[in-house]
Amino acid sequence: MMNNDITILTSSLDELGIKYTDEQIDKLIKYFKMLIEKNKVLNLTAITDFQGVMIKHFVDSLSILKYIEIEDNSKVLDIGTGAGFPGIPLKIFLPEVEFLLMDSLNKRLNFILEVIDELKLEKISVMHGRAEDLAHDKEYRENFDFCFSRAVANLSTLSELCLGFVKKGGMFIPYKSALAEDEISNAGNAIKLMGGKFIKTEKFELPVLKEERDFVFIKKGINTPGKYPRKAGTPAKNPL
Fold it and tell me: How many domains is the chain partitioned into structurally?
């Protein structure tokens, strides 16, 4: 792989002010190779070109580090992780932080376990299941300092699915692309019902591609009422 290719990754991280080591870059490249190889037999991503994966998956996943500092004793949840985004790239850059990657499809999680093993990642685990069910499990409910999700869903639905996992004082930060302002106002009721409070939106452009991205910062103020989230499928069909 040519250095010019890797420079797409390193120069983009430089542009965002995100520090990295050679070891971290090496792990991302190994992850890329595993992703492309597994994608031949399992539909993990529609993006398979080197630049696309580097920017749209890796840099996008890591870009939150431009805006927040995650302390070593934090617990982080990635809901709907898919092929491991943003959880795996963030784990590579935050080796002392405890991560749980959650997804409803076991095949994806089996791939992630292979990546964890190959990259020798520690303090990271996976959980199979739906957020609507797992959020009612006392082992996970209101147990995380940060919850991230790159899942494609409206903010009302995501808030109901995710805020039940966040402890008081913690943050739910969904990754959104070109978020419409009315989506935030429409989600206001759901955010409030879940015990959250909208803090701010951070807008930026992905390096190289110049595509707009948004982070929505939602802080957990009070415990989520026990009846939420509602049963599987309901938050998506009937957003609050």
Answer: 1
Regarding pTM above 0.90, the answer is yes
d(CA 240, CA 30): 41
Confidence band, pLDDT 50/70/90 cuts, at residue 2 = very low
Q: Are 131 and 162 in contact (CB under 8 A)?
A: yes
The number of residues in the chain equals: 240
pLDDT at 1 exceeding the cut of 90: no
Taking the C-alpha atoms of residue 216 and residue 203, their distance in angstroms, rounded to an integer, is 9
- Give the CATH number of the domain where residue 62 resides: 3.40.50.150
Structural domain of residue 110, as residue ranges?
A: 3-237
Token duo for residue 83: 């092929």
Nearest residue to 100 (alpha-carbon basis) of 57, 51, 144: 144
Strand order through the sheet with 75-79: 124-128, 98-103, 75-79, 144-149, 166-177, 212-220, 196-205
Residue 4, pLDDT > 60, answer: no
